[in-house]
Amino acid sequence: MASVERALILVAMVAAAAVLETAAATTYTVGAPDGLWDLQTNYAEWVATKTFHPGDKITFTYSAELHDVVEVSKAGYDACSSANNVSAFRTGNDVVPLTAVGTRYFLCGLTGHCGSGMKIRIDVVAAGSSPISPAAAPTSAAAPSASTAAGTAVLGFAVLLVVVLHRAIAVPLW
């Protein structure tokens, strides 16, 4: 195989890997589709149906006059205290990237809101794994997530792209 062919295939593979990583990321609107960042949504139920991975994003949508979003430590989360916060958001449409494996804690910093249930714990797990607790363990086979299906489709496209490029290069055009 000529060095130009190898270089083009390598470029195609790198581009496909980048597309796969982007396609596999998911953006979640906290509380959606039935709620938002408000006092009515049950966040424990909402988060129990999600699996978060590095690269995903969570969006908090709310009335900036009525609420805010404060990232806190576990101690702050447990105590409903935003005193020593990690960060605070107040736009009403805050996007938080989940960049690494670990647990993140968020609450509404307005008096009484956290105590009324306006707090959420986000467990970010490595790709290919899911947080399974005995209470949340599935009893039957679950359908693949949208991000898994998208990732599989993009991977298939990437393989097809490499094959097509190789065949196009292997056949002289003149």
Automatic annotation (TrEMBL):
<dbReference type="GO" id="GO:0005886">
    <property type="term" value="C:plasma membrane"/>
</dbReference>
<keyword id="KW-0479">Metal-binding</keyword>
<feature type="signal peptide">
    <location>
        <begin position="1"/>
        <end position="25"/>
    </location>
</feature>
<dbReference type="InterPro" id="IPR039391">
    <property type="entry name" value="Phytocyanin-like"/>
</dbReference>
<protein>
    <recommendedName>
        <fullName>Phytocyanin domain-containing protein</fullName>
    </recommendedName>
</protein>
<dbReference type="GO" id="GO:0009055">
    <property type="term" value="F:electron transfer activity"/>
</dbReference>
<feature type="transmembrane region" description="Helical">
    <location>
        <begin position="149"/>
        <end position="169"/>
    </location>
</feature>
<dbReference type="Pfam" id="PF02298">
    <property type="entry name" value="Cu_bind_like"/>
</dbReference>
<keyword id="KW-1133">Transmembrane helix</keyword>
<keyword id="KW-0812">Transmembrane</keyword>
<keyword id="KW-0732">Signal</keyword>
<dbReference type="InterPro" id="IPR008972">
    <property type="entry name" value="Cupredoxin"/>
</dbReference>
<dbReference type="InterPro" id="IPR003245">
    <property type="entry name" value="Phytocyanin_dom"/>
</dbReference>
<keyword id="KW-0472">Membrane</keyword>
<dbReference type="GO" id="GO:0046872">
    <property type="term" value="F:metal ion binding"/>
</dbReference>
<keyword id="KW-0325">Glycoprotein</keyword>
<feature type="domain" description="Phytocyanin">
    <location>
        <begin position="26"/>
        <end position="126"/>
    </location>
</feature>
